[in-house]
Design a protein that fits this description.
elongated, about 325 residues, 2 strands, mainly alpha, about 65% helix
């Protein structure tokens, strides 16, 4: 030890604490110097009571773990390992969740509760996703449809009878915590919904497939590279991108128009055509379109209007 102190450059913390007894003695000295104490049985019962009260407003066990660490730190108590604190938090959180689940089931009823859950995860006709995702989507700011969108969500909730649910026994802060937790739900929960809810998984795959089909259409319209002397300026890039999008929209509009004619003809003949079938048929097919052909437009019919507008004599 004297040699190590005489030559501090040759010693390090790792070699100093290879002897476990030395490490233990130094830790005991540090605890005594800082005035830290071990957690006793009375303090353990006290912290469990604190976590039980905090669980009434917590949205996740992680919040309770943070509360436990703050409580221990403020009383100069040595903070136990993560597993022990997690057990305390999970015990308090599960007890509160079980009590609130029983309260909600008694206030709403099993049938109404099951109906509300099924409705929340059912596909929403107003958005590409479930009713829950539709409710989570905020309305557009300062838009003419802001009031209409908000009123539509209120009416949908009122149709479920939400305004008749007697949930006064549940703290308002807890309800706010639930709402905030749902709004920023974690990817792990999203993955659980994807794996367990068949309708949710089917809708998500349909959306991904629809987007990829549009990308395939765009690559079929023009999949090569742009000439080196084009697209260097911002105006050229906007013109090229706009032309590409315009051609894509033309194909989508044409397919939609032809599909509408076919559906109208089949329904007129008495063939059953349900809307649920049609919503899964996208208008991005292009195998029947010749992208290398020559298309002629009847410009002669509108030529004089174009010339007049160009010269500024036509009324705008």
């Amino acid at each position: 030890m004297r040699q190590a102190l005489a030559n501090p450059g040759q010693a390090c913390d790792w070699s100093l604490y290879e002897r476990r007894q030395t490490l233990y003695e130094h830790q005991a000295w540090a605890r005594a110097y800082l005035g830290l104490n071990e957690l006793n049985e009375v303090q353990r019962q006290k912290i469990e009571q604190v976590l039980a009260v905090a669980a009434l407003e917590a949205a996740h066990p992680d919040d309770l773990m943070r509360t436990a660490r703050i409580w221990l730190y403020g009383r100069r108590i040595i903070i136990p390992g993560t597993r022990r604190i997690a057990d305390w938090a999970r015990k308090a959180f599960d007890a509160t969740e079980a009590a609130m689940a029983a309260t909600i089931e008694a206030a709403i009823g099993k049938d109404a509760l099951r109906q509300a859950i099924d409705w929340a995860y059912a596909p929403s006709p107003a958005a590409s996703g479930s009713h829950l995702e539709w409710l989570k989507t905020p309305p557009e700011r300062h838009a003419p449809t802001t009031t209409a969108q908000t009123l539509e969500k209120i009416l949908a909730l009122k149709a479920l009878g939400v305004h008749n649910w007697a949930l006064d026994s549940i703290a308002l802060s807890k309800q706010h915590a639930y709402a905030a937790h749902v709004q920023m739900r974690r990817p792990s929960l999203f993955l659980c919904d994807y794996l367990t809810i068949t309708d949710f998984r089917r809708e998500l795959l349909a959306l991904l497939s629809r987007g990829e089909s549009v990308h395939q259409l765009q690559r079929a319209i023009h999949g090569g590279q742009i000439a080196h002397d084009r697209g260097r300026r911002r105006q050229e890039m906007v013109a090229i991108s706009g032309a590409h999008a315009l051609l894509t929209n033309n194909v989508l509009a044409w397919n939609t128009s032809r599909m509408d004619c076919v559906v109208a003809r089949l329904r007129a003949s008495g063939s059953p055509m349900e809307d649920d079938w049609l919503r899964r048929i996208g208008p991005a097919h292009f195998s029947h379109i010749n992208f290398r052909g020559t298309y002629r437009f009847n410009l002669e019919k509108y030529g004089h209007l174009l010339v007049a507008r160009r010269s500024g004599t036509a009324a705008l």
